[in-house]
């Protein structure tokens, strides 16, 4: 029997410019490579139709910047598969370049949710992050999403930046809320290997401040919850009923199929990553039977349990205590420290505990 696929991720690796903090597979726009990508994706989709029982209910187009494609190429991307049949279809976008014709195209194709990479509003923050938009561009992009009739809007934000104190971060959160999004994702700036941020650290230009980041994290929880958002995951806040279903499915341990260069899949106990290079991805997808893989591993019961704990602790759903058999002493210690609470047969982290989610997971493993 073919494995059933209800969660689908599609990676579009192209960007108009490369940001210093991003470590996702990405490259600058190039016409020939975009054509390669579309051919490869079409071939991979054909393979997936033969290999799996495809019934995607939740689809996420990430990158890169999917909306960096020209309207004509974006239209071709929309037509590769019946993406619009999904219950939820999220597309990531940047404020710069999200013109009205693109949002209309996305809505007509069936997109139900836009995740807008705002990241910051202050000019100094935007410059440090290498972003090319400004407040006016953000407002225009949001207006285009609303005018197109796309039902749901998420705004991505980043905190822990240089010269970003509590007052500056609170102002950023208030500006974001003023745009009336349905969802806000607030991530701490994280240096990743191979990025420009690592070079800045090595040259003494900047250093992360974990204590300061913790302060801003708690401030985020307080401000957004006061505005009606629920912290349903450590970095994700939604108005009631506006959570990202794709994210929730992945966090709960459901299988997912990843398409595109560098995309990761976890299906029926196997995990693999497609080759990152766009040209090699396309060539191998077209020659078959599937794109070349950079990584392959078997996810046994022990690995899946560890993932359930790591991901479950990050969410407001928490962990069923029955999955933590034999950890009574540890759970009692975490509650006594004020890091966790027990409710309705579940163990959940408190805001203080969420600051230490990885450490708590290590204790439970």
UniProtKB/TrEMBL annotation:
CDD domains: Radical_SAM (cd01335)
PANTHER family: COPROPORPHYRINIGEN III OXIDASE (PTHR13932), RADICAL S-ADENOSYL METHIONINE DOMAIN-CONTAINING PROTEIN 1, MITOCHONDRIAL (PTHR13932:SF5)
Keywords for this protein: 4Fe-4S, Chaperone, Cytoplasm, Heme, Iron, Iron-sulfur, Metal-binding, S-adenosyl-L-methionine
Any one GO CC term of the record: cytoplasm
Homology family: Belongs to the anaerobic coproporphyrinogen-III oxidase family. HemW subfamily.
Pfam families documented for this protein: Radical_SAM
GO molecular function: 4 iron, 4 sulfur cluster binding; coproporphyrinogen oxidase activity; metal ion binding
Alphabetized InterPro entries for the sequence: Coproporphyrinogen-III_oxidase (IPR034505), Elp3/MiaA/NifB-like_rSAM (IPR006638), HemW-like (IPR004559), rSAM (IPR007197), rSAM_sf (IPR058240)
Localisation per UniProt entry: Cytoplasm
SUPFAM superfamilies assigned: Radical SAM enzymes
Function comment: Probably acts as a heme chaperone, transferring heme to an unknown acceptor. Binds one molecule of heme per monomer, possibly covalently. Binds 1 [4Fe-4S] cluster. The cluster is coordinated with 3 cysteines and an exchangeable S-adenosyl-L-methionine.
A GO biological process held by the record: porphyrin-containing compound biosynthetic process
Species: Verrucomicrobia subdivision 6 bacterium BACL9 MAG-120820-bin42
Residues of the Radical SAM core domain: 1-227
Protein name, UniProt field: Heme chaperone HemW
